[in-house]
Amino acid sequence: MRWENLTVESRHDRAADAALFGADAVTTRTFDTPEFRGITFHEVRARSVLNRVPGASRMPFEWTVNPYRGCTHACVYCFARKTHGYLDLDTGVGFDTQIVVKVNAPELLRRQLASPRWHGEHVAMGTNVDCYQRAEGRYRLMPGILAALRDRANPFSILTKGTLILRDLDLLKQAAEVTDVGISVSVGFTDTELWRTVEPGTPSPERRLDVVRTLAGHGIGCGVLMAPVIPFLGDGPAQLRDTVRAIAAAGATSVTPLVLHLRPGAREWFMAWLGRHHPHLVRRYERLYADGAYAPTWYQRRITRQVHELAEEYGIGPTRAGLPRRIRPPAPAERPAGSGPTQLSLI
């Protein structure tokens, strides 16, 4: 296992950087309990927890915090599978069962947020693997992370499929009183048969929508990332309608569709699954994704148009660009009477 080669950004981009953690900082554990049977946890003491997103990324944020690597949600399409290869871990079953836990993430984040070099930029969580996956129930890293962000009034967002986020409801409410908090729940479809096969370790779509409903009931707006919309399996007109209807009924503030994309690492694992469960679709997928990781633009636009029309019909409408991951600009400081003109900042 290659711990020492995992650098602050990417081992390919910054090979000369110090490693995020060394082999002497790794403790490997297993727990003989039903929910963790077959799972191996690699506890590490990270050297950095704020990660800068590469400039070429499509993501609408620049900084992330990921307290875990690998994910017991075991979604067959997960784009983050490739990251396990950086540690010489298997990107298939290994991604689902070999979980790296940054046990010092809360204290490290608190220290990094207090640095004079940090300027309070928006921090996104759940962008690589789910920060509220099953392991969080044991390691409880998110309460400390949320408290650190709250205490610095630092804006943040969370994307999750995990119902465990409701455990931290009080912290989320406290943070929302002092800074901008954006919460999104991922629900790509409501088809229970499809859910059981492609997202076997996640809470059911209905339970995730209960999270949306509960957050809304406590005054915390929650959008839904309708992702992924899976071609030929979850994209039928009736399926899209059922999903958008359920999202609207849960009280979501917005719905944003995202068609399945198959990056290297995830592509091989997903296609192997497709060959076992839906072999008649393999050739159709090979044609649809012949040009790369993303479905053709015409297909993406069709799905987006259908979902937006349904969302408007059910009274929630599409999200605006940047929402629910949004950053509220700081309120301008009051100027003492009689003072001279003030130069306005563009940033």
Instruction: Tell me the span between the first and last alpha carbons.
Output: 42 Å
Looking at how many chains there are and whether they match, the oligomeric state comes to: single chain
Rg (CA only): 21 Å
Low-confidence stretches: 4-19, 320-347
Structure, explained:
The protein has twelve helices and eleven strands. The protein is of the alpha/beta class and 347 residues long. The strands form two sheets. Strands 3-4-7-8-9-10-11 form a seven-stranded mixed β-sheet. α3 runs parallel beside α5, α5 (142-151) runs parallel beside α6 and α9 (237-249) packs across α12. The radius of gyration is 21 Å and the shape is globular.
Highlighted features:
single chain, 347 residues, alpha/beta, seven-stranded mixed sheet, 14% strand, disordered C terminus
